[in-house]
Write a structure and sequence with these properties.
It is a single chain. The strands form two sheets. A two-stranded antiparallel sheet has the order 1-2. The chain is 27% helix and 39% strand. The protein is built from two helices and four strands; from the N terminus they run ββαββα.
């Protein structure tokens, strides 16, 4: 869904809601120079009463040359940054 709303004489608000398969996101990131790789994300959670708990979750990262896999390179974080930059080009 794409919705355009005129907010002022010189301002248009754009709302975009889409459902994308992983492959489309990966293709976009690869086209922007990223390598998409699987990654076992290990992290601690301190929200439970009585201490911390350990968690593991398989996900993907998107890294450029020289970057290491980390929480900063989780593919959805990178995609969000890249799509915002892409839309700013208008």
């Amino acid at each position: 869904m794409i919705r355009l709303t005129e907010k002022a004489p010189d301002l248009i608000k754009i709302e975009i809601k889409m459902h994308l398969p992983y492959e489309d996101i990966f293709r976009f990131l690869i086209g922007r120079g990223y390598e998409v790789m699987p990654w076992l994300w290990k992290y601690e959670d301190e929200t439970f009463p009585g201490g911390t708990t350990q968690h593991e979750s398989w996900t993907f990262t998107a890294c450029k040359d020289g970057e290491k896999q980390s929480e900063k390179t989780l593919y959805l974080k990178v995609f969000e940054k890249e799509i915002k930059d892409f839309l700013k080009e208008f």
